[in-house]
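Researcher: We plan to redesign the surface later, but first we want a full-length starting point. Tokens attached.
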């Protein structure tokens, strides 16, 4: 299987690095020239929970030099998805599938708009990774990957991708409900990310403040109502209890949104709380807490841009 990872940041390098180590024909595609040049010159340096090593993997700014592949693995931030898929055209031939394991809502739709639903695979990842600098990532935590197809015709490809990932040490299962799984992860992000970004607290510290626990609960409950109104099957999980459990289990972590705010970078608020607000408006579901969280995080982003 020929693979191109588009968006070779923290997660793209993690997956691309594991695949290259397992002998998979994989190329990294990224717009960041210094990073690409450093990977080609000295190799990709991975540290953290899966060990400290340098992995040789080709990287490029120009997808035309890679040509058509079997799988495009998209790992840009959600606000770059539409542009990155359009830029991936040279990678996409008759049988190519595009897989997103990004966080947030709207990525499946943005990819579908360009390549059609029959080519789209989606899912979630519970790995954590941090971009330390050019050619350098830290593998912060391990967890399962879920992959599924939007259309039944692509299910066998999803199974092949899962086999390839499992062969590379990336523990992967097949999902029969990609949308439901993505929403499940979004609900956790709704309860944790914006509140940690706004307060500067670690995930677990949110639980120590009763007023913040209450906001976590309401943000998740609003998300559940929007998802249900949108026809998403959220299963039998108690999503409020689950977000508290995740905050506790990842208690020492700085959420990705807090890290983005600390570094003065744009956040994925639009694809998380912002999408819930927008969908809620369309579906007639009130989302006052998610609306306030979205506005406040946008205020933080604005402050960084001044
Ligand atoms: P990142 O910022 O580290 O990497 C994104 C990369 O995309 C950057 O290197 C950037 O230069 C590149 N890029 C931007 N536009 C591009 C384009 N048009 N073409 C090619 N490359 C382009 O982000 P990340 O932390 O790896 O996150 C990627 C996605 O995975 C996000 O949706 C995030 O929420 C999700 N995710 C991240 C983690 C994590 O621990 N980092 C965990 C789970 C899910």
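Model: Full-length starting sequence:
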């Amino acid at each position: 299987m020929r693979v191109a990872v588009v968006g070779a940041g923290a997660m793209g390098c993690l997956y691309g690095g594991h695949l290259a180590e397992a002998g998979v024909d994989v190329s990294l595609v990224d717009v960041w020239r210094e990073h690409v040049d450093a990977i080609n010159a000295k190799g990709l340096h991975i540290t953290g929970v899966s060990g400290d090593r340098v992995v040789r993997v080709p990287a490029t700014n120009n997808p035309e030099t890679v040509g058509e592949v079997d799988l495009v693995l998209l790992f840009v931030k959600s606000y770059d998805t539409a542009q990155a898929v359009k830029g991936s055209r040279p990678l996409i031939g008759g049988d190519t599938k595009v897989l997103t394991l990004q966080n947030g809502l709207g990525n499946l739709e943005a990819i579908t708009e360009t390549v059609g639903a029959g080519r789209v695979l989606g899912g979630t990842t519970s790995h954590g990774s941090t971009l330390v600098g050019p050619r350098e990532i830290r593998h912060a935590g391990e967890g399962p990957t879920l992959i599924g197809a939007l259309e039944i015709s692509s299910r066998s490809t999803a199974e092949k991708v899962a086999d390839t990932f499992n062969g590379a040490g990336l523990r992967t299962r097949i999902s029969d409900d990609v949308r439901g799984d993505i929403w499940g992860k979004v609900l956790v992000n709704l309860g944790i990310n914006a509140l940690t970004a706004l307060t500067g607290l670690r995930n677990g510290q949110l639980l120590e403040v009763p007023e913040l626990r209450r906001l976590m609960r309401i943000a998740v409950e609003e998300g559940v109502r929007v998802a249900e109104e949108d026809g998403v099957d959220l299963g039998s999980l108690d999503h409020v209890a689950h977000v508290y459990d995740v905050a506790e289990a990842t208690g020492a972590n700085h959420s990705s949104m807090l890290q983005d705010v600390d570094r003065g970078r744009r956040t994925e608020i639009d694809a998380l709380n912002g999408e819930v607000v927008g969908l809620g408006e369309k579906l007639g579901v009130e989302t006052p807490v998610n609306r306030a969280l979205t506005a406040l995080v946008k205020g933080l982003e604005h402050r960084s841009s001044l």
